[in-house]
């Protein structure tokens, strides 16, 4: 990387599990560099979802390096996830035809609920004997036929608060799009609403997103939120992050005993 930019650049790994991201600094110029990022990044930049893309260049070995403006800022706190601006950005992403067209051109196919369940089967191992985990898997199996395969949009897939960047200029971005998919919007919204927003705020939050909250959409969000919690429990356990794993198990337990009466939700 130093050879590519020149010896007068300071290159620092930017963290993350892939090892593909770097911070570069030369004088007053600061860049966020990533190796082999998707061409989807350019469209996200054009839509204002991620920090501005400055350039992309191909190396002799075939690697493609992308450079974005480095944004000084911080991740959102869990409390800030209930802000209207988060809902509005998610609405913008999920309703974007250019983003959807780009992912289709890149060969992405819809991620079906049956594929999500298959991913759970392939991932859950050491935790399968836990009663809450076993109950959640049975719930996914039982409810799978009622999860529709008809609404597909661009989804981020991991909208937890760590992936939201609030710049020092008060610009809000959703970053780390390596897991972008074409899927049911409930896959993102379930994580957001069940994970961060109090129930009495749901109707107003999702109105800012751009739809009405119905009982059927509630059930879709619950189904996907359950699947994602199962995947995170297994991942945290494998990484030895037992505190996070136990928090997710507690959240899974609450989700499994979620009240069945959703009559307070607006009906169409």
Automatic annotation (TrEMBL):
Protein name per the record: Phosphotransferase
Sequence ranges assigned to domain Aminoglycoside phosphotransferase in this UniProt record: 14-214
InterPro entries: Aminoglycoside_PTrfase, CcrZ_PhaseVar_Mediator, Kinase-like_dom_sf
Keywords: Transferase
Pfam families assigned: APH (PF01636)
Transferase is among the record's keywords: yes
Keyword Isomerase: no
GO molecular function: transferase activity
């Amino acid at each position: 990387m130093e050879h590519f930019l020149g010896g007068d650049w300071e290159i620092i790994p930017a963290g993350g599990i892939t090892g593909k991201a770097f911070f570069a600094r030369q004088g007053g110029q600061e860049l966020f560099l990533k190796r082999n990022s998707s061409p989807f990044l350019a469209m996200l930049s054009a839509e204002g979802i991620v920090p501005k893309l400055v350039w992309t260049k191909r190396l002799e070995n075939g690697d493609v390096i992308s450079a974005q403006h480095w944004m000084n800022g911080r991740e959102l706190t869990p409390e800030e996830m209930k802000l209207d601006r988060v809902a509005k950005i998610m609405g913008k992403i999920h309703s974007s035809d250019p983003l959807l067209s780009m992912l289709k051109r890149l060969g992405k196919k819809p991620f079906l609920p049956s594929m999500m369940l298959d991913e759970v089967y392939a991932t859950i191992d050491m935790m399968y004997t836990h009663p809450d985990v076993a109950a959640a898997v049975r719930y996914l199996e039982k409810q799978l036929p009622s999860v529709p395969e008809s609404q597909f949009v661009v989804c981020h897939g991991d909208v937890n608060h760590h992936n939201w960047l609030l710049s020092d200029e008060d610009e809000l971005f959703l970053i780390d799009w390596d897991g972008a998919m074409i899927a049911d919007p409930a896959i993102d919204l379930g994580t957001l609403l069940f994970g961060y927003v109090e129930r009495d705020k749901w109707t107003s939050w999702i109105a800012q997103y751009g739809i009405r909250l119905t009982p059927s959409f509630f059930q879709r969000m619950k189904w996907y939120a359950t699947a994602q919690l199962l995947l995170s429990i297994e991942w945290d356990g494998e990484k030895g992050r037992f505190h996070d794993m136990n928090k997710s198990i507690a959240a899974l337990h609450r989700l499994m005993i979620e009240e069945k009466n959703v009559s307070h939700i607006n009906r169409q």
